[in-house]
Amino acid sequence: MRVAALMDRPTTTSASAQRGFTLIELMVTLALVAIMMMLAAPNFTAFQRNSELTTTANNFLATLSAARAEAMKRQLRTFVIPADGSNWSSGWVSFVDVNSNVSTTALSSDSGDIILSRVDGLPSSVVIDTTSATSFVHSGVRYAMFNGSGFMTLIGGGFPSGGAHSLDFTSGTGQTRRVLASSAGRIRVCKPTDAGCSVSAGF
Fold it and tell me: What is the model's pLDDT at position 87?
């Protein structure tokens, strides 16, 4: 009888086990989360812009490298030109000049050419500096051309002035990535503050 009475006795839980969050505690927690997000937002924005900058510069580098490799493979001229024909900020397109009819007055691909890759536009946070005389511009026309030997040359023959060209990509955070390409076909990306990251450095 005593055992049965104990089993029938209702169980109770402590008040602390039933206690949840109060309204004040919840508001304080939300306020702390909001402050942490506000502090993290600028760092995340800077990280995102630097990531877009690096990706864009590496994309241009990869485009030049692929165009050079294709030129040697096919023993034909390959080109990398602005997507709109004049402005690198519009993106770029690379192609094989199969019928060898590209000229400074007709700098574009036609139906007989082979398109290798195309980039239309850049992230809004990335700006290209084209004020330099060595920013892949020749006699007022912007392009990079590789011959069948893998050398970066001019459409009319010869090599680009200075033997190398570069293109600077800048982000809103003040960071810059420079893509360098020499007449011999050496191509790399670096920071302008790095040693040897200049057209005249003979990289």
Answer: 92
The Cα–Cα gap between 147 and 24 comes to: 72
- What is the Cα–Cα distance from 68 to 77, expressed in whole angstroms? 9
Length of the chain: 203
Question: Model confidence over 96-140: pLDDT tens digits?
Answer: 999 999 999 889 999 999 999 999 989 999 999 888 888 999 989
Query: What domain range is 174 assigned to?
Result: 47-201
Residue 18: pLDDT above 90?
Answer: no
Neighbouring CB atoms inside 10 A of 157's CB total 7
Q: Is residue 6 part of a domain?
A: no
- Residues 159-169 pLDDT 10s: 988 889 999 99
Nearest one of 94, 60, 79, 96 to 187, comparing CA atoms: 60
pTM: 0.78
- Which of 151, 144, 142 has its CA nearest to residue 75? 151
Give a yes or no: residue 55 inside a domain: yes
CATH of the domain at 146: 3.55.40.10
Whether 136 maps to a domain, the answer reads yes
Alpha-carbon distance values, 133 to 63, 142, 161 (Å): 21, 10, 9
197 vs 181: CA distance, rounded Å: 11
Domain count of the chain?
1
